[in-house]
């Protein structure tokens, strides 16, 4: 994950751009003119849709994105360009075709229910002149891109002529082309590096009913051979991702809760492009894409995901190394803000945790039960020496942090230099502050910044001091 955080790939997205337009309101009556609901509009929002959702996902991950497409000479086209410029996406490769309607899908929503959708768009194929202009624009800069994505929403931009032109250019310059396909005929994508069809799309394209491991392999092999792919890939919804180069490999999904799968395919291809650009293997890439999808399906509506969200999600699954759970003050501040935004309850406790024993583990497990995210403040070596004496700690801070972070109950560990975690608690402002039962009737540092204080009794006879005495034969 650290390597991905320090990487800014340059990615070109070619495909069907559109505007998703939402009219939000309330409905309390039926029209006297016709048996239809009357919606009083209170809010209006727009977001990039179609290939624009792939762009949004790449942008959220930290990529530098350029886009090439064909739009109409209309107000929607101007609005779309302004939306791209607002998120610093290079739109210089957009072509305006006279007489074409820029896609805009408008949805009327009342009391969280979609009442009506109306579309204004052109779905016929773009003309040969527009294809030639796109190829000419791309040809002069193709070698500067790390990856090219073809995002096909079946609105006429990705014609066979354009797909083959882009793929040919990219292959000559050793640039991988990834395709989110549409329809049942994948021949126009021939020569791409990989495609990302879902199971239903793969069944239509191969005419193979994917119902078990054997038919899955048969479909993967057929796609690879017939479309001349480097890697064959099929997304399997809750089944994860399956790939084939010389053998079939399956990467299970890691979604905990599914609220909405809208846009999950856009997240998958964006995350695959991002990881491949950073030189990740297909195995690492598929696992990364599964994590990204796991985050995004837990959100409502077409959503994006950041590297930080993926890292936190991986940590919550305890599939990451302990290093990923050890955070600085600056890191934990951002994490806490995201926890608050998602409605999670933050719990904080602290200690030296010198020689970890069963008393520590049970204490931390009970602390975690008070909320959703447990943050543990860890005294530095100097701090422990000042509190416990010159012979302590037995284990140095990096070792203590690593072992703590490996515990299932612990979400994040934050080392601090001071004798008390006062400044850390002030910054975190936990919903629940947890301390040992020996603090009953005493002042507890940081309570003024916490929502509540919980005291947890220690396990009798279990302590680091007693462990050391036993080792010393005392």
UniProtKB/TrEMBL annotation:
Residues 10-304 form the Carbohydrate kinase PfkB domain. Pathway: Nucleotide-sugar biosynthesis; ADP-L-glycero-beta-D-manno-heptose biosynthesis; ADP-L-glycero-beta-D-manno-heptose from D-glycero-beta-D-manno-heptose 7-phosphate: step 1/4; Nucleotide-sugar biosynthesis; ADP-L-glycero-beta-D-manno-heptose biosynthesis; ADP-L-glycero-beta-D-manno-heptose from D-glycero-beta-D-manno-heptose 7-phosphate: step 3/4. GO terms for cellular component: cytosol. The keyword Transmembrane does not apply. Residues 348-474 are annotated as: Cytidylyltransferase. Residues 348-442 form the Cytidyltransferase-like domain. GO terms for biological process: ADP-L-glycero-beta-D-manno-heptose biosynthetic process. It is an enzyme of class 2 (transferase). The active site is at 266. ATP binds at residues 198-201. Residues 1-320 are annotated as: Ribokinase. Its EC number is 2.7.1.167, 2.7.7.70. SUPFAM superfamilies: Nucleotidylyl transferase (SSF52374), Ribokinase-like (SSF53613). Keywords: ATP-binding, Carbohydrate metabolism, Kinase, Multifunctional enzyme, Nucleotide-binding, Nucleotidyltransferase, Transferase. Pfam families: CTP_transf_like, PfkB. GO terms for molecular function: ATP binding; heptose 7-phosphate kinase activity; heptose-1-phosphate adenylyltransferase activity; phosphotransferase activity, alcohol group as acceptor. InterPro entries: Bifunc_HldE (IPR023030), Cyt_trans-like (IPR004821), PfkB_dom (IPR011611), RfaE_dom_I (IPR011913), RfaE_dom_II (IPR011914), Ribokinase-like (IPR029056), Rossmann-like_a/b/a_fold (IPR014729). It catalyses: D-glycero-beta-D-manno-heptose 7-phosphate + ATP = D-glycero-beta-D-manno-heptose 1,7-bisphosphate + ADP + H(+); D-glycero-beta-D-manno-heptose 1-phosphate + ATP + H(+) = ADP-D-glycero-beta-D-manno-heptose + diphosphate. The keyword Cell division does not apply. Homodimer. Catalyzes the ADP transfer from ATP to D-glycero-beta-D-manno-heptose 1-phosphate, yielding ADP-D-glycero-beta-D-manno-heptose. PANTHER family: BIFUNCTIONAL PROTEIN HLDE (PTHR46969:SF1). In the N-terminal section; belongs to the carbohydrate kinase PfkB family. This is Bifunctional protein HldE. It comes from Sulfurimonas gotlandica (strain DSM 19862 / JCM 16533 / GD1).
């Amino acid at each position: 994950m650290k390597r991905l955080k320090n990487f800014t790939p340059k990615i070109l997205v070619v495909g069907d751009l559109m505007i998703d337009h939402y009219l939000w309101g309330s409905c309390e009556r039926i029209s006297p003119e016709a048996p239809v609901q009357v919606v009083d509009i209170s809010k209006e929002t727009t977001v990039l849709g179609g290939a624009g959702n792939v762009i949004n996902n790449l942008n959220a991950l930290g990529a530098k994105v350029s886009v090439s497409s064909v739009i109409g000479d209309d107000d929607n086209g101007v609005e779309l360009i302004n939306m791209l410029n607002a998120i610093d996406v290079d739109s210089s490769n957009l072509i305006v075709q006279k007489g074409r309607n820029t896609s805009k899908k408008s949805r009327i929503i009342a009391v969280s229910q979609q009442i009506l959708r109306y579309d204004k768009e052109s779905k016929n194929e773009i003309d040969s002149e527009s294809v030639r202009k796109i190829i000419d624009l791309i040809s002069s800069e193709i070698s500067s891109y790390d990856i090219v994505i073809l995002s096909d929403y079946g609105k006429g931009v990705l014609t066979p002529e354009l797909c083959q032109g882009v793929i040919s250019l990219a292959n000559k310059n050793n640039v991988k082309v990834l395709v989110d396909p549409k329809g049942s005929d994948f021949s126009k994508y021939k020569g791409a590096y990989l495609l990302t069809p879902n199971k239903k799309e793969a069944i239509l394209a191969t005419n193979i009913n994917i119902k078990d491991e054997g038919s899955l392999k048969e479909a993967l092999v057929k796609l690879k051979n017939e479309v001349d792919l480097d890697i064959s890939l099929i997304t399997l919804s809750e089944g994860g991702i399956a790939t084939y180069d010389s053998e079939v490999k399956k990467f299970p999904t890691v979604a905990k809760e599914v609220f909405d799968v809208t846009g999950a395919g856009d997240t998958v291809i964006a995350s695959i492009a991002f990881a491949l650009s950073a030189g990740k293997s297909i195995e690492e890439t598929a696992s990364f894409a599964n994590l990204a999808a796991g985050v995004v399906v837990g959100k409502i509506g077409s959503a994006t995901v950041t590297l930080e969200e993926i890292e936190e999600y991986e940590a919550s699954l305890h599939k990451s190394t302990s290093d990923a759970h050890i955070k600085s003050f600056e890191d934990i501040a951002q994490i806490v803000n995201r926890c608050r935004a998602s409605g999670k309850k933050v719990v904080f406790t602290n200690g030296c945790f010198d020689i970890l024993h069963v008393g520590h583990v049970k204490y931390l497990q009970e602390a975690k039960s008070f909320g959703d995210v447990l943050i543990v403040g860890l005294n530095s070596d100097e701090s422990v020496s000042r509190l416990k004496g010159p012979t302590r700690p037995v284990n140095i801070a990096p070792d203590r942090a690593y072992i703590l972070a490996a515990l299932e109950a612990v979400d994040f560990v934050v080392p601090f230099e001071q004798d008390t975690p006062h400044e850390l608690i002030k910054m975190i402002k936990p919903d629940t502050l947890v301390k040992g039962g020996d603090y009953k009737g005493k002042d507890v540092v940081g309570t003024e910044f916490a929502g509540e204080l919980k005291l947890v009794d220690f396990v009798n006879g279990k302590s680091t001091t007693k462990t050391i005495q036993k080792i010393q034969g005392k």
